[in-house]
């Protein structure tokens, strides 16, 4: 038999052996990601139903928001979209301002990245900004019923936070609301934030401290966060609370914190 052919066969067997040895690890990683994504997606699918019930007055309130008055409702041809956009206006946008402890004009004239935006462009509440909403599940959110076509002014980016498709020093500001604990690799995400944020750019993070869950696999605390962002001058915790708009934490080890430079 040709020696080259024998050598090629040996190499192929070795490659197959290596691939086979790593297969369980790859399958496990995929299973974890799939489970985390499924939990997240199922939550938002159920929310759409609740938004419509709230919009129609079938439930008295949702996360503390009373049913909308007629003059508060966004009215579109599609009832589902009407309910979703009404919830965005009444709850989500106000929630962003309260969670981040900011005013609408804080990022005036800036290019802003919202990491883990979820299905809503809630950060559109900040006036006169060029807004990028980044989330790896965006196509899934749109598939289950969240609309995107009403937001031509927003740039939706389907990507993980660990490998963002932006040039270095691209953003004037980076924000994240209750999402940084959902990522797969916390430290890699922080390094990506460092890469895409301009020198002396603004950084504002609303971070949930908690025990691990399927959808929120990262356990964070003051020490971990401060060490991860040591590269960012003047980055510090500016507030902590058990409460956010419409929700109160009951876990002894849970806390909402806000960090900023």
TrEMBL record:
> What GO molecular function annotations does the UniProt record carry, in alphabetical order?
S-adenosylmethionine-dependent methyltransferase activity
Record-linked CDD domains: AdoMet_MTases
Q: Which residues form a coiled coil?
A: none
Q: Which domain of life is it from?
A: Bacteria
The Methyltransferase type domain extends over 151-203
Q: Which first-to-last residue range defines the signal peptide?
A: none
Tell me the protein's name: Methyltransferase type 11 domain-containing protein
Source organism of this protein record: Candidatus Magasanikbacteria bacterium RIFOXYC12_FULL_33_11
């Amino acid at each position: 038999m040709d020696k080259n052919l024998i050598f090629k066969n040996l190499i192929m067997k070795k490659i197959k052996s290596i691939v086979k040895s790593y297969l369980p690890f790859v399958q496990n990683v995929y299973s974890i990601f799939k489970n985390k994504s499924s939990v997240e997606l199922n939550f938002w699918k159920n929310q759409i139903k609740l938004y419509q019930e709230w919009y129609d007055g079938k439930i008295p309130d949702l996360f503390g928001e009373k049913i909308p008055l007629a003059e508060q409702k966004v009215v579109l041809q599609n009832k589902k979209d009407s309910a979703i956009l009404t919830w965005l206006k009444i709850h989500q946008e106000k929630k962003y301002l309260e969670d981040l402890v900011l005013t609408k004009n804080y990022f005036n004239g800036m290019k802003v990245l919202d990491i883990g935006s979820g299905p809503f462009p809630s950060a559109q509440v900040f006036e006169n900004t060029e807004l990028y909403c980044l989330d790896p599940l965006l196509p899934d959110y749109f598939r289950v019923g969240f609309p995107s076509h009403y937001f031509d002014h927003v740039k939706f980016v389907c990507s993980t936070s660990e490998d963002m498709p932006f040039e270095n020093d691209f953003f004037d500001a980076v924000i994240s609301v209750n999402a940084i604990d959902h990522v797969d690799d916390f430290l890699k995400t922080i390094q990506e934030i460092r890469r895409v944020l301009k020198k002396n750019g603004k950084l504002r993070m609303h971070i949930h401290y908690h025990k691990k869950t399927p959808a929120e696999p990262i356990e964070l605390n003051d020490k971990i966060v401060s060490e991860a962002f040591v590269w960012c001058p003047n980055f510090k915790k500016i507030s902590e609370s058990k409460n956010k708009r419409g929700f109160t934490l009951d876990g002894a080890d849970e806390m909402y914190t806000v960090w900023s430079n």
